[in-house]
Amino acid sequence: MKNLKSLTGCVFILLSSYAFTATAHEGKEHNEVHSEAVNEDVPALEWDGADYKKAEKLFRSAGGYGCVACHSQFAQGGGNVGGNIRDHSLGQINYALQNEPTMKLLNNALSPDDKKLLASYLKTLGQFKLVEWTIDGDSSYSKTSLDKGSASQLVISNKTFEPLTLSLEPLGNGGEITVEPYETKSYEWTTEPGVVRLQYRQNILDIDVR
């Protein structure tokens, strides 16, 4: 599967449905509490289908301000306060929206169907093995391992002041991807056995597929 996609994140401080530690946007830790929220199952969406695109649009615009500040463009966290919420359940979403002070306004802006659609969206993203690569202008080396035949998503964050262009040939695609300054983009593919090296100047990412 080969597809270039640029997404925007969504503001959810999503917490475990049973026992979890909540962290407010101000960084203050709260005591462990228990949720009685039911984790209603929702289906994953067809990748890049009509429902997926509808969910993506909602993910970008929920509450009128989007959610990238807390969870980054692909719900992977990206080092932001909200953390990785890929594959979080409807029960986790509902609990956070109803109990996290910073989330209550968003709760009122979302219908029950909106919440189910967002849960399906996160479930869809959660089906991909995530590989994050941040390029900030300094020399860097990263290595990760994946199983062969895995649906995977490479998330590239450009933290420099100039556009960067990367060849996708090592991933089995003769094309390339251009990421603008302080933009994040993704590339989706299915892994094949071998060691893949991606390089931009002095930034290197090795992906060991077994």
TrEMBL record:
<dbReference type="GO" id="GO:0020037">
    <property type="term" value="F:heme binding"/>
</dbReference>
<dbReference type="InterPro" id="IPR036909">
    <property type="entry name" value="Cyt_c-like_dom_sf"/>
</dbReference>
<dbReference type="GO" id="GO:0046872">
    <property type="term" value="F:metal ion binding"/>
</dbReference>
<keyword id="KW-0408">Iron</keyword>
<keyword id="KW-0732">Signal</keyword>
<feature type="signal peptide">
    <location>
        <begin position="1"/>
        <end position="21"/>
    </location>
</feature>
<keyword id="KW-0479">Metal-binding</keyword>
<dbReference type="GO" id="GO:0009055">
    <property type="term" value="F:electron transfer activity"/>
</dbReference>
<protein>
    <recommendedName>
        <fullName>Cytochrome c domain-containing protein</fullName>
    </recommendedName>
</protein>
<dbReference type="InterPro" id="IPR009056">
    <property type="entry name" value="Cyt_c-like_dom"/>
</dbReference>
<feature type="domain" description="Cytochrome c">
    <location>
        <begin position="50"/>
        <end position="126"/>
    </location>
</feature>
<keyword id="KW-0349">Heme</keyword>
